[in-house]
Each structure stands twice: as C-alpha cells, then as structure tokens.
Amino acid sequence: MDRTTALELDWLWDDFHRVVNMTSQELGTWLRTSGAGENSEPLPERAGTETGRKVLAILGKRRTDLTDEDVAVMRKVVETVHVQRRTDLEPAAGDSAWRRRLMTLGHDPLKPA
User: Fold this and answer.
1) What Å distances lie between residue 3 and 11, 12, 31, 57, 77, CA to CA?
2) Under a CB-based contact definition with an 8 Å cutoff, are residues 55 and 73 in contact?
3) Whether 80 contacts 105, CB under 8 Å
4) Alpha-carbon distance 31 to 57, whole Å?
5) d(Cα 43, Cα 5) in Å, to the nearest integer?
6) How far apart are CA 55 and CA 73, in angstroms?
7) N- to C-terminal Cα distance for the chain?
8) Would you write out the chain's pLDDT as a tens digit for each of its 113 residues?
9) Exposure of 74 by Cβ count < 10 A (0-12 exposed, 13-18 middle, 19+ buried)?
10) pLDDT at 91
C-alpha cells in the first residue's frame, strides 16, 4: 500500500467508518433509488455515483484487503464529509440537495450519532 503507515491507516479506517454512518444495505438502496430515472434504471452494480459505488465496495472489505485506490477514496470521503459538516457550511432547513450529496458518500447528516 502506498506510503500510508499502519497507524495512519488505523486512524483513516476508524474515521471513515465514523463518517460513513449508513450501512452497506442502506447505501446500496440509496444508490439504486437515487440512480433510478423516469425512463430507465441502471444495473444495480452501476447505480449511483462512482464514488458511492466505491464506498459501498469498501464497506464490504476487511482492512487488510484495502487497495491504494480504496485508501484514496476513504481519504476523499472523510475530507468531503468533514468539510460539508462544518457549521458554517450546513444549509438551512429543507436543503435536500446537500443531504443527497452526502448520502451518495454513505453519510446521512440527519441520522443520529
């Protein structure tokens, strides 16, 4: 694995699983639902965003099975969720687009901690 130390990977693994607060089943259902269109629906393995599908795949892995790409995705997701959750960036009530964007990464901001 790239230049990530075991300690950094431990921290990243834990932080990733903290910010990704949706189960793999919840995320898979969300990706299929959000990807459904009026006229067509993608194959289940292609539903949702590419990053969302990668998050879903990571949720099904053991830490020892992570690839360099998985680690990069985990970093991106953790950073994105932390930035989006900053108090000054949280939207006013009713901004469902903000919630939907975070949910494509496996983070439901309305889910209790």
Assistant:
1) 14, 13, 32, 22, 19
2) yes
3) yes
4) 12
5) 37
6) 7
7) 31
8) 556 788 999 999 999 999 999 999 999 999 988 654 544 455 555 567 899 999 999 999 999 999 999 999 999 999 999 888 765 455 555 667 888 889 999 999 888 86
9) buried
10) 55
Length of the chain as a residue count: 113
- Give the CA count within 13 Å in the CB-facing half-sphere of 79: 6
The full 3-state SS of the chain, as one line of letters, equals CCCCCHHHHHHHHHHHHHHCCCCHHHHHHHHHHHHCCCCCCCCHHHCCCHHHHHHHHHHCCCHHHCCHHHHHHHHHHHHHHHHHHCHHHCCCCCCHHHHHHHHCCCCCCCCCC
- Token couple for 87: 């108090």
Structure tokens at 15: 């932080």
Tokens 């990668």 sit at which residue?
A: 54
